[in-house]
Design goal:
By secondary structure, the protein is of the alpha/beta class. The protein folds into two domains: about 170 residues, Roll (Sulfate adenylyltransferase), CATH 3.10.400.10; about 250 residues, Rossmann fold, CATH 3.40.50.620. The chain contains 14 helices and 18 strands.
C-alpha cells in the first residue's frame, strides 16, 4: 500500500500576516504626530495582580501567530466569533480579541474612527493602531458568551463560569470600551535571555523546519515544566495515526501571565529544552519555541487557537489529551477531543475543525492518559497493561508539593536535569513558582526590551 505524503499545511487563511515595519524611516513616519497610549496590564479586580497585557496579543497578531487575524476586532467581528466561532472572512477563530481602553484614556486621546494612535510599552514606542471603530461592550456579557453556559453548551460545559476561571476573569475585568483596527509593530522587540533563543515566529519556524528537513511536525501544547508523563506523551504521539514516525516534535510554550502556583515561564522553556539537551528525546527531532498569549484556559476553544497558532508555525499535527488547556471542572475533561472528533454544534462547529469549510488543516492526534504502573515498574499508556487498580495518575500538585518542600521528585516521574532547571530559577526569583512578586516583576520587565526610537512631532 503506498505511503500517504503529508504536505505542510498553508497558514490559516492562506497567507501569513506580517505587520512588522522594519524600515526605520517608514516606522518613524507612521508614528509621526500620533497621540500616545501607554499599554498597561489588565488587573484582577479582587487582587490587583496583572492577569493579561495586550502587548502580547499585539506581538502575536503582527508576527502572524493568529493569522488571518491582522488587528483587533470590531463589534460585528466579535459577535460573529461568539455566535459561530468564525471571523467575518469565514475562517474559524475561537476567541474575541479585544483592545480595551479606559474612559479616561479615550477622552485624553481625543481620537475618532480613522485616526491612528502610537502604542508605547514601558515608555517606548512598540506599535501603531489604525482605529476602524470605537465601540462599547458589557465585560460580563462578553466573558459569559465567550466560554458558554451549561444551558447553551450542554455538550461540554459542566458548570457556570465565574471569576475563579482565569479566562472568564480576563474578559470580565476589561474596561468595556474597545478600539478596533489593524495593528503594526514599528519597533521590533529584542527578547531577553532565555526567551531570545526560543523566539521562532511563524516565518522563522517554517524556515527552521525546512532547514531540518521536517515534513511532518507534531505540536505539543504546554504551560508546565515537563514530567515523564509529558515526555511519554510526546514520544507516543509522534508515532500515532498517520505519522510513523513524525519527523519533528515542536513544544510550543504559552508565555504570559500565569496563575499563582504555576511554574515560571523561564523554567518552562528551559525545562523542555533540557529534554533534548540531555538526550531524552533526540535534539534532531525535538524543538522548543513559544507564543505570547495570556491563556484563556478555554479547553476546546483554547485548542482551536492552539491549532491555528501551530498550523501557522508550520506543524502538520497536534496532540490533544485529557483536560486540554483547562482549569477546574468547568468543562467535560474530554471536551477538546469531542470537538476534534465530531464538532460542537452549540459553538457553531457542526463538524471537526479540520473537516469544515474555512477550517484548520492541521490534523488532530487525540491521546489517552498516561499512568505510572508500580506493578510494571514503568509508565503505561491507557489500557496497555492489565493492572488498572494499581495505576497511579501523574499529579502536578503532588510534584509541586514535593518541590516546595525541597524534595527532588524521583526519576521515575521527573528527570533530574529538569529539576535542576527549576532550582536555577528558584534561586533567581526566590520561589519555585509564580507568586505575586513574580507577576509584578514580569510586568515591569516583560519578555523583551525595546530600543529607543525617534518619533517626529512627538
Amino acid at each position: 500500500m503506498p505511503t500517504t505524503i503529508i504536505k505542510r499545511p498553508p497558514p490559516h487563511g492562506g497567507v501569513l500576516v506580517n505587520r512588522v515595519e522594519r524600515n526605520a524611516y517608514r516606522a518613524q513616519r507612521m508614528a509621526a504626530g500620533a497621540p500616545r497610549l501607554e499599554l498597561r496590564p489588565t488587573l484582577d479586580r479582587r487582587t490587583g495582580l496583572p492577569i493579561r497585557n495586550v502587548y502580547r496579543e499585539i506581538v502575536s497578531i503582527a508576527y502572524g501567530f493568529f493569522s488571518p487575524l491582522d488587528g483587533f476586532m470590531t463589534r460585528n467581528e466579535v459577535e460573529r466569533v461568539l455566535a459561530e466561532r468564525r471571523l467575518l472572512s469565514e475562517w474559524v477563530f475561537p476567541f474575541p480579541i479585544i483592545f480595551d481602553v479606559s474612559e479616561e484614556d479615550l477622552q485624553r486621546l481625543g481620537v475618532r474612527e480613522g485616526d491612528r494612535i502610537l502604542l508605547t510599552l514601558r515608555g517606548r514606542p512598540l506599535a501603531v493602531l489604525d482605529i476602524e471603530e470605537i465601540w462599547r461592550f458589557d465585560p460580563i456579557d462578553i466573558a459569559t458568551r465567550t466560554f458558554g453556559t451549561p444551558e447553551k453548551n450542554p455538550e461540554v460545559v459542566r458548570v457556570p463560569f465565574d471569576h475563579k476561571h482565569p479566562g472568564y476573569n480576563i474578559y470580565a475585568s476589561m474596561t468595556g470600551i474597545a478600539l478596533a483596527g489593524k495593528v503594526t509593530i514599528i519597533n521590533e522587540p529584542r527578547f531577553r535571555e532565555p526567551y531570545d533563543r526560543f523566539w521562532y515566529p511563524p516565518e522563522a519556524s517554517r524556515r527552521e523546519f525546512e532547514r531540518r528537513g521536517w515534513r511532518t511536525v507534531i505540536a505539543h501544547q504546554t504551560r508546565n515544566v515537563p514530567h515523564l508523563g509529558h515526555e511519554m506523551l510526546m514520544k507516543s504521539a509522534a508515532f500515532a495515526g498517520d505519522i510513523e514516525p513524525c519527523h519533528g516534535i515542536l513544544v510550543n510554550a504559552i508565555i504570559g501571565a500565569k496563575r499563582l502556583g504555576d511554574f515560571t515561564d523561564e523554567a518552562i522553556l528551559e525545562g523542555h529544552e533540557a529534554i533534548n539537551l540531555y538526550g531524552y528525546i533526540s535534539p534532531k527531532r525535538h524543538m522548543v519555541n513559544f507564543t505570547l498569549w495570556d491563556m484563556r484556559y478555554g479547553n476546546p476553544l483554547e485548542s482551536l487557537l492552539h491549532g491555528i497558532v501551530r498550523q501557522n508555525l508550520g506543524c502538520t499535527h497536534h496532540m490533544f489529551g485529557r483536560d486540554h488547556a483547562a482549569v477546574g471542572d468547568y468543562y467535560d475533561p474530554y471536551a477538546t477531543q469531542i470537538l476534534w472528533s465530531r464538532g460542537i454544534p452549540s459553538y457553531g462547529l457542526n463538524e471537526p475543525p479540520h473537516e469544515t469549510d474555512y477550517g484548520l488543516r492541521i490534523r488532530p492526534v487525540n491521546m489517552g492518559e498516561f499512568w505510572y504502573c508500580p506493578k510494571c515498574g514503568e509508565i503505561a499508556y491507557s489500557a496497555n497493561c492489565a493492572h488498572e487498580k494499581e495505576r497511579q495518575r501523574f499529579s502536578g500538585s503532588f510534584i509541586r508539593g514535593l518541590i516546595i518542600e525541597g524534595i527532588e521528585p524521583p526519576p521515575i516521574i521527573f528527570r533530574p536535569e529538569v529539576y535542576q532547571i527549576i532550582v536555577k530559577w528558584w534561586r533567581a526569583f526566590g520561589y519555585p513558582y509564580v507568586n505575586s512578586r513574580y507577576l509584578k516583576t514580569k510586568e515591569e520587565q516583560g519578555e523583551f526590551e525595546l530600543g529607543p526610537m525617534e518619533v517626529p512631532g512627538a
